[in-house]
Design brief:
The structure is a single chain. 66% of the residues lie in helices and 3% in strands. It is mainly α. It has 2 domains: 127 residues; 336 residues, Neurolysin, domain 3, CATH 1.10.1370.30. It has a 3-stranded mixed sheet with strand order 1-3-2, with helices on both faces. Strand 2 and strand 3 form a beta hairpin. Helix 5 runs antiparallel to helix 6 and helix 10 packs antiparallel against helix 13. The protein is globular, with a radius of gyration of 23 Å.
């Protein structure tokens, strides 16, 4: 790049690395949506080859030279330029400390792990999956050791998804949440009104998948998702990947559980809106990347829970829902629908969990992950440990591993340390929600008219446009004026569900 400044050349190389990462995202999306079963091993080789190329680009010595030149003249950098350089340094140092062969092997292992998990889950066969999980855990520990975190590998796993996050921080926040949440869950679950809500939800059956797909697409478009820059498909486990110009979302359908596909789609739409709201001009640098998975999950959970489970949301969308499914909804009143949307029932399956009990599922996984990384729990003992934890935290015990330790995809590719992001995201969402309600008291009246533009605009300005300028905890402090705390989440749950079930 003749005559290019060190910053321009750095940004160009960062963008090339980011582009390679988006290709890896597409390979993974296709793997879970379209890949023929017989192509699994070839896909593992493709992941490995691309990971090697990506790693070579990320560890290019020219990046180190550009960073050195920029850091030597740091006083001339603007705050935004300093942010780009600081995050590029962090990523470059990590890339250069990881051997290329390790990166290649880990990528192939992650691909094989996904297929091993899918097969084991279908057959309820943890024994066949255990060696894969042991190898994934070994890779995670080795990676932490390469980066100088061999003594605290789980802190490194958390930091990968949420920069700056530590086990100590999560322990403190989760302990405070458990103290207030567990008695609330028990009181709500025991309420006669809760049993009524579950009965109504059980009556929602026979909803054609085609109609469900049409409705959820209308809803997600109304929330602001741009389908010219994204799409939604079907996969075994709902997810969202890609960047603002090409967001790939998935959901899954069940004719007898019509709310499942809808809310999972709204959840993934929250992720998609965040990606579509990141500054495109800074794509590939810290100014155009999300602030971490806790913030990412806050966007999905806010739209899914605070918005889409509200009375105002359904005042707008209920007529269309009834028009699409007249026979299935004929015997359900609006109040019963609100109960079904906010039904509370302890379940063994995390993705089926209601808003009240969901966080207990995350606490369970966090505590097991800590023990795995500390060497206090062997992989072979995970099923029994899971059953014990589920019984103690959720009040239910899995009858098999499919509804226990095999239910989630995350560990199959070594995504340890991700689960806490869900619960932290719920906390952030509730804290953001408290802030916007204080600022705009008539916000829910706008929802009732089908107008979600102010909320999306506020999130775009205060969250999306900030990129990675701030860590999750710093961003929450700046936007809400107070440190991250579970108290707003507990207050939200008490307000909504206390009124429904304990009033």
């Amino acid at each position: 790049m003749p005559n290019a400044s060190p910053l321009d050349e750095l940004v160009s190389r960062l963008r090339r690395g980011h582009t390679l990462g988006t290709i890896a995202d597409l390979l993974q999306w296709d793997e879970q949506v379209n890949l023929p079963p017989g192509a699994a091993e070839q896909r593992a080789a493709q992941h490995a080859a691309l990971a090697e190329v990506h790693h070579a680009a990320a560890s290019d010595p020219r990046i180190g030279e550009q960073l050195g030149a920029l850091e030597a003249d740091a006083g001339k950098l603007t705050p935004d330029q300093s942010t780009v350089v600081a995050h590029a340094r962090r990523d470059y140092d990590r890339a250069t400390k990881l051997p290329a062969e390790f990166v290649r092997e880990k990528a192939a292992q992650g691909s094989r792990g996904y297929h091993a998990w899918a097969k084991a889950k279908a057959a309820d066969d943890f024994a066949s999956y255990a060696p894969v999980l042991e190898k994934n855990l070994e890779f995670a520990r080795r990676e932490a050791a390469y980066l100088g975190h061999g003594a605290a590998p789980y802190d490194y796993a958390l930091d990968k998804h949420d920069p700056g996050l530590t086990t100590t921080t999560v322990d403190r926040l989760f302990a405070e949440l458990k103290r207030d949440l567990v008695p609330l869950v028990r009181a709500i679950a025991a309420s006669p009104r809760a049993a009524e809500a579950r009965a109504v939800a059980a009556r929602l059956k026979g909803f054609p998948v085609e109609g469900q797909g049409a409705f959820l697409r209308e809803v997600t478009a109304a929330l602001g998702f741009d389908y010219a820059r994204g799409r939604i498909d079907v996969s075994l486990h709902p997810f969202c990947s890609g960047t603002g110009s090409d967001v790939r979302m998935t959901t899954r359908f069940n004719a007898d559980q019509p709310l499942d596909a809808l809310f999972s789609s709204i959840h993934e739409t929250g992720h998609g809106l965040y990606e579509q709201g990141l500054p495109a001009t800074h794509l590939g640098t810290a100014l155009g990347l999300h602030a971490g998975m806790a913030v990412h999950e806050s966007q999905s959970r806010l739209w899914e829970n605070q918005v889409a489970r509200s009375r105002a949301f359904w005042r707008h969308f209920e007529p269309r829902w009834r028009a699409l499914f007249p026979e299935q909804t004929a015997g359900v009143t609006s109040e019963e629908l609100h109960l079904a949307v906010n039904a509370v029932e302890p379940t063994l399956i995390r993705v089926d969990a209601d808003e009240v009990t969901y966080n207990l599922h995350i606490v369970l996984r966090f505590e097991l992950e800590k023990k795995l990384f500390a060497g206090e729990l062997a992989v072979r003992d995970l099923p029994a440990a899971w059953r014990t934890a589920a019984r103690e935290l959720i009040g239910l015990e899995p009858a098999n591993d499919r509804e226990g330790v095999l239910q989630d995809v995350h560990w199959s590719d070594g995504s340890f340390g991700y689960f806490p992001s869900y619960c932290l995201g719920n906390m952030i969402a509730a804290q953001l929600w408290a802030r916007v309600r204080a600022m705009r008291p008539a916000l829910e009246e706008e929802f009732a008219r089908g107008d979600f533009t102010w909320l999306l605009g506020w999130l775009r300005e205060n969250i999306h446009a900030q990129g990675r300028r701030h860590s999750a905890t710093e961003l929450v402090q700046r936007v809400t004026g107070e440190p991250l705390s579970p108290r707003h989440l507990v207050a939200h749950l008490r307000e909504r569900y206390g009124a429904l079930y304990l009033g």
